[in-house]
Amino acid sequence: MATTQYRIVAGTDSDIHDEPHLPESRLTVREIHAHVDERGLRPETIADRFNLDIADVYEALAYYHSNPEEMRAAEQRYERANAVASERSSMTPPNDV
């Protein structure tokens, strides 16, 4: 069986993300998947909105579905980072008022 070659930049090879993303873009594979598979936007819409080639959108989706463990780990890191950021930014009143 042939191995698929992707142009996706791995998180370990990136200077801007710790997760897979499109080359020369800050848009991650996880974000593209969320827009298309979770929010129901069409790949053409994502390509237009982010000034991408439609092939890049489909490549990101193929990468997402071909690498489930890697993408699950990226999603877990993202959720943990969001939880930490939420805790740090939530304001609570002082207890002695």
Automatic annotation (TrEMBL):
| Record Pfam families | DUF433
Q: Which SUPFAM superfamilies match?
A: Homeodomain-like
- Name of this chain's protein: DUF433 domain-containing protein
Gene3D superfamilies tied to this protein: Winged helix-like DNA-binding domain superfamily/Winged helix DNA-binding domain
User: What is the superkingdom listed in this entry's lineage?
Assistant: Archaea
Organism in which the protein naturally occurs: Salinadaptatus halalkaliphilus
InterPro entries per the UniProt record, alphabetical: DUF433, Homeodomain-like_sf, WH-like_DNA-bd_sf
